[in-house]
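Weekly modeling sync, notes
Attendees: S.R. (lead), two postdocs, one rotation student

Agenda item 3: backlog of single-chain predictions. S.R. asked that every request posted to the team notebook include the full sequence so nobody has to chase files. The rotation student volunteered to paste the first one in as an example of the format we agreed on. Action items at the bottom.

Example entry:
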Amino acid sequence: MEACIKVEHLYKKIKNFRLENISFLLESGYVLGLIGRNGAGKTTLINTILGLWTPDQGSVEIAGLDRVKDEIRAKNEIAFVTDECLFPLEMTPYSIGKIFGKVYDAFDYEHYKKLCERFRLPMHKRLQRMSKGMVIRLQLAFAFSRRVKLYIFDEPSAGLDPVFRKELVDLIFDLTYDGDKSVIFSTHLTDELDRIADYILFLEEGKQKLFEQKEELVSRYKLIRGSEEQIEEFAEKIIGKKTTPNSCEALIKMENQNKQSDIINYNIESNDIFASGSRPLITTPTIEDIMYYFIKGV
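Predicted structure, as returned to the notebook:
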């Protein structure tokens, strides 16, 4: 399977912020969840992929096309949606489809009309009279009507109601089903990534904390909750920890990601702290848990 997007040793400095040594490869047919705090570098990375900024070092390839050397062809393989309106507010869904649809070679106007109807968008209502959620749905309808290799969604769920957010997840599943297209999904609503992401790219202060397949990620790490004494038995494995007056919770990295029981067996053999019958609770973390404890630390 070919690479949809390939980023190698990417560096980009914007004023006092620097994106440092970002590298990842996403094959066609997969969804990449892009996570990190505000100011972590997500927007800088997206803008560099879009070609709005040129890398200081490193490279970006879209479907085998260098983002700098093959700028026009690479740009035509990307559809982008953000929570801010990219179209003139005095336009209507009808005029946007007719005018902006002609800018792109691979725009399906009939599919666009069907999506506008499905999303309950009045074709002749000006965007300036629409709610934020309607404008985002309009941008999604336009993006989904383009036949490209890479779709980038930057906080698209911010103005959407819960019902449509679920529909968006279904649309993304349908989009990547044929294995020919990929999605980069940047969001603060990490519960969505628990459902749709195949890979996770985690940025913090401009640096790449991790890039990993989601299923491997959630199996490699575990949440453990118990007394502080019990948690300290895993000191060498702890990524991050939170202590309250009555309990302690920590994210730990497993040596053997396939066997949760190895954690308990390890402690029983090394120190009989479970003699009283009290054992810590071990659960599978969410993407939000992993992000929180990586940032919090010990």
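Discussion: group reviewed the output briefly. Residues 265-277 have pLDDT under 50 and may be disordered.
Action items: rotation student to repeat for the remaining queue; S.R. to check formatting next week.
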